[in-house]
Amino acid sequence: MTAATHSTLFPQVPETADAVLAGLDPEQREVALALHGPVCVLAGAGTGKTRAITHRIAYGVRAGILPPASVLAVTFTNRAAGEMRGRLRQLGAGGVQARTFHSAALRQLQYFWPKAVGGDLPRLLERKVQLVAEAAARCRVRLDRNELRDVTGEIEWAKVTQTVPGDYPAAVAKSQRDAPRDTAEIGQIYAMYEQLKRDRGVIDFEDVLLLTVGILQDRHDIADQIRRQYQHFVVDEYQDVSPLQQRLLDLWLGDRDNLCVVGDASQTIYSFTGATPDHLLNFRVRHPNATVVKLVRDYRSTPQVVHLANGLLSQARGRAAEHRLELISQRDPGPEPAYTEYADEPAEAEGTARRIRDLIASGVPAGEIAVLYRINAQSEVYEQALADAGVPYQLRGAERFFEREEVRKAGVALRGAARAGGNDALLDDTEDLPSQVRAVLSSNGWTPEPPAGSGAARDRWESLAALVRLSEDFARAKPGATLSDLVGELDERAAAQHAPTVQGVTLASLHAAKGLEWDAVFLVGLTEGMMPITYAKTDEQVEEERRLLYVGVTRAREHLSLSWALSRSPGGRASRRPTRFLKGLRPGSGKLGAAGGAGAGAGIERGSGAGRRKRRGPVLCRVCGATLTEAGEMKLMRCEDCPSDMDEALYERLREWRAEQARGLGQPAYCVFTDKTLMAIAEQVPGSDGELAAISGVGARKLDRFGADVLAICAGEDPAEGEETP
What we know:
The chain is α/β, with parallel strands linked by helices. Strands 1, 12, 13, 14, 15, 16, 17 and 18 form an eight-stranded mixed beta sheet that branches. Strands 4-3-7-8-2-9 form a six-stranded parallel beta sheet.
């Protein structure tokens, strides 16, 4: 996983102020020289915005124009603030304050509280969830853990948009926001939460901003003191500023205009937290004499990736789209984006894993590859596919599927129901395995229809729905299977997906990928209903989904793959459609727009066979003929419980050899070969490179590395006596 600044090395401290400007492109240099008055930097993805603003500050300091202590640079994450401080130190401007909004406000609040209010600053409530839970209980509203997180998020949104409890229902209706519960109910919980804080003398994270704003509004002497201290302000990621943060910034500024803001309206993807691009879009209205500089030279991505990114935005609508930036790649040409259509989701995951394995074999480090999806519930099938392919991976922004709380609880409930059998009242009116699972999971929060809106409640439902779908597939593949059989299957799947101990391919949601970049990015699950997500109803919500895809595309430096599946499971009806956002951009989807589109060499591959449109049929067990749905079974070409002609002694020799290889490599055993691959080898006993390569899980890289050893073992020889592996 790589931050948006790929290089980990900083240059030597420049000897002079003019040396600070060396290496900047003309637009970045213009930013660095614009040291007075309002400045608005519109910076596209990968255009070096952090470089531009840190060199601006450093040049001003080194030239003696900006006293270091008079500059306050604010951004949104501790990581970004730390990166900015590090760059400024390397440029010889170490005395500048670079902080998050909350860090800067808390520092001022702690200093001025005794003077403004008296006594010590109230204790900061680091986690508000427990107090929200108590507030809900006092309102006689029962919330589970996930609902508690959603309601807490609503309270945070209300506070950063400066909405008081009594106005919350009207504010939600006006913003067309999907609330996780009845708005009047949330308003009551919000009011009680505020009352409990007052009773206990504590403040929360949002109060830090609210109280600082209150003091600066009421105490002009304190406001004047802060304004004497800070004369120049820089705000990064300005498209993510909330109304409350903008109010604080206005109070810091007073009647001055020494403000430099940096942002990109096309990367606004956090409106659900209160962020709005309006302040960026209205900057030139509020400051008619502002210097405006556009950074459009993209140093991150190849022309092919940039071409697609521009094409996406060329179809956008709304205010943010009116201010879109046309990026110009500064890199050498690379491969065209790959568009792949798969028959079903398992095929998409397996195909993605194969492509990743090939990329790693070609020299792309696993840590420079990412698989990005819309919601966290999509991760499980990719975890399974990568594990089966022997590719190490890591999750960002989400727990592994079988470690999610709702999945663990569902497993406990299903195990209990399996033990109880006919004695469990929940199963009284059930007729088959899927209906049993639905009955059990209904007590854990599963419903036939998904909950409205997004957030934790939706993610939890998606996880439970994935278990319901798995039970349906399992029952189709194994008629007569019991709840105990399904529990055993779940245990096997959970055991096969342990987290690797080495750096691997990143699995992340699109939101969690913001600010990061990789050499290769796989954007998966790009179907209507997922991109845009089903609960994006309004035009603005749909446009934010488009921007989310744009952010995903612009994470890629060189290799970009976009894929979708026509059905959910093997043999299913091919009723899905690729996302509307790629219409006119991907080959075969209509006339390409003049402002962007797929390159001339691009084409859609078919995951079930290049160039063929025929939908892949079900994979059948070679023993009993049943439909196979699990990747491991497909690898063996038989059901787990069907008779095996495996050579047990050969299997054990292969396991012992694999353990030695894994120890030597310092990797988990499955990174050599998974158990299923070893079983397939022991069943088929290959006698040549071609026969070994035909086994699922044995790619070109592993054939080159381990093929001689494996064939020697299959021939009954000692691997040490065969050819040396490369």
